[in-house]
Amino acid sequence: MEAHTALEAACTRLHELDDIFSTWKPGSALNRFRAGILRLPQAPPEMALVLELCDEARALSQGWFDPWAMPGGFDPTGLSRAGPLSRRSESSSSPALNPQWSTAEATSPSSACPRTLRAWRIGIRHPWRPDALACVLKADRAVATSGCYERGPHLINPKNGRMLFRTASATVVGSSLPLCDALATALVAAEDAGPELVRSLDGYEAYVIGVDGEEDATEGIVFATEGVR
Q1: Which residues have C-beta within 8 Å of that of residue 97, sequence separation ≥ 6?
Q2: Which distant-in-sequence residues (6+ apart) come within 8 Å of 215 by Cβ?
Q3: What phi, psi does 80 have (nearest 5°)?
Q4: Predicted TM-score of the model (pTM)
Q5: Does the pLDDT at position 193 exceed 90?
Q6: How far apart are the two ends of the chain, measured CA to CA in Å?
Q7: How far apart are CA 58 and CA 51, in angstroms?
Q8: What is the model's pLDDT at position 16?
Q9: Which pLDDT score, from 0 to 100, does residue 226 have?
Q10: Per-residue pLDDT tens over the stretch 114-145
Q11: Whole-angstrom Cα distance, residue 118 to residue 14?
Q12: Which among 123, 190, 203, 210 has the fewest CB atoms less than 10 Å away?
């Protein structure tokens, strides 16, 4: 019952956030904000938090994540579905859920490790084999994976507007789930420069798969010894 209640609460919160940040609902707070109808002081408090986090993510990613450079105006989709905004961390920390395993797919954030566990195992879905894992990571922090293999081309390089990338999948591990989500999106756009970008940041690690099958991981990524592939 506790797990059911936690999941219901998480789903309710995600629906609330969709009403705020949806780019498809004409009446969402985000679309009214982009149209200049809604000013920040009158917007839901989550809007100010997202703007602050997006600005931080843009700086950390050296501009490879830039919601202000998206077609149609400010679009925080790569960040606003994650972490403290959805309270997903709190829901997933319920002992009733106790997730020893989680699977990260394209553009899918996973919560920080529950307090009842030392670490959890994250299966990273293979970009071309939907029934297989590319690897299994061990993490005690937040994890987010981004790519175009689940939803098709939808990520945009903020520096040149391109939608085709040499990076098939990018996973980031760090203390902040929203920033992991944003940085994973940035690594796809940054392509070859991505791994070195993460290596320049304190507290974040990355695992990247290129469209040619080449893999790269920063030094702090920990692979599980069992259950891989």
Answers
A1: 3, 6, 7, 91, 114
A2: 134, 135, 207, 208, 209
A3: -75, -10
A4: 0.81
A5: no
A6: 34
A7: 10
A8: 86
A9: 54
A10: 554 567 888 999 999 988 999 999 999 999 99
A11: 27
A12: 203
